[in-house]
Write a structure and sequence with these properties.
With 249 residues, this protein is α+β, with helices and mostly antiparallel strands. The protein folds into 2 domains: 167 residues, no CATH class; 65 residues, no CATH class. It has a 3-stranded antiparallel sheet with strand order 6-5-7. It is globular, with a radius of gyration of 18 Å.
Length: 249
């Protein structure tokens, strides 16, 4: 089963352009890389060797990801095509879960994100964090997830805003902040929503539940079963686009 997750922290995002070898994206663009999972079963991802057995990204797909981000040149060894939701957290090899990440940007780079992935995997496999929550956190904003689950970002780095590229860190008026950005109050709409079943459950085609308080819940979350849906959406991305938000943990 595949479940699409969102990176959107506000209603609209401007694509940082152009991304280049000297100006790589520090966060993936939500419209190009919304995130995609292959499984939400923690037992599977905690089996030794699981991630290696699922790794299968062909060079042609890597080239397509670079092209989608507008990156024409990249030095060998300085980049990787990274899984937004890592394989060890149940992520898939679909293009919607892939983005070009630099190894050499400072202080934030692919090595730093790797530490977060390992930390989240350990929390999941120790039974301290639901897999769905780990997937949502890293897809939403990996720098914010690092601050929450690992600790302070390295060398005084700050949590990034969507669309930021490496050059924006030195630009006057940079909008990076030491804490994750707070979305403005939502204005819910019924766009793309489906009515719930009489018992408050959602149909299989739209499994994401939105509660009376305007919070959405995805299958596998702690409060999902007991939530009486007021409306239903096909994905978390659709729910956020309609103005609803994920639960705070």
């Amino acid at each position: 089963m595949k479940l699409f997750l969102t990176l959107l922290l506000c209603s609209s995002l401007a694509l940082a352009a152009p991304y280049t070898e000297s100006n790589p994206p520090l966060l993936p663009d939500a419209r190009l890389t919304p995130g995609d999972v292959l499984t939400t079963d923690a037992k599977l991802v905690c089996v030794s060797g699981y991630a290696g057995s699922k790794r299968n990204v062909k060079q042609s797909l890597k080239n397509a990801v670079y092209k989608a981000y507008g990156i024409q040149k990249h030095q060998a060894g300085d980049w990787e095509i990274d899984h937004l939701i890592s394989l060890e957290l149940g992520g898939s090899n679909a293009q919607g879960n892939l983005w070009p990440q630099s190894f050499v940007t400072q202080p934030l780079n692919a090595h730093v994100k790797d530490k977060l992935e390992d930390a989240l995997h350990k929390l999941v496999c120790d039974g301290k964090l639901p897999l769905s929550e780990a997937q949502s956190a890293i897809a939403l904003n990996w720098t914010g997830a690092y601050l929450k689950y690992v600790g302070p970002l390295p060398a005084g780095a700050k949590v990034l805003l969507p669309g930021q590229a490496a050059s924006s860190l030195d630009a006057p008026g940079s909008n990076a902040s030491s804490t994750p950005p707070v979305p403005s109050a939502p204005t819910p709409s019924s766009a793309s929503s489906s009515p719930p079943n009489p018992d408050g459950s959602c149909p299989p085609s739209a499994p994401v539940k939105v509660s009376k308080s305007g919070i959405y819940h995805i299958p596998g979350e702690r409060d999902y079963a007991k939530t009486h849906a007021q409306s239903c959406f096909a994905s978390a991305q659709d729910a956020e686009a309609a103005g609803y938000r994920a639960p705070k943990r």
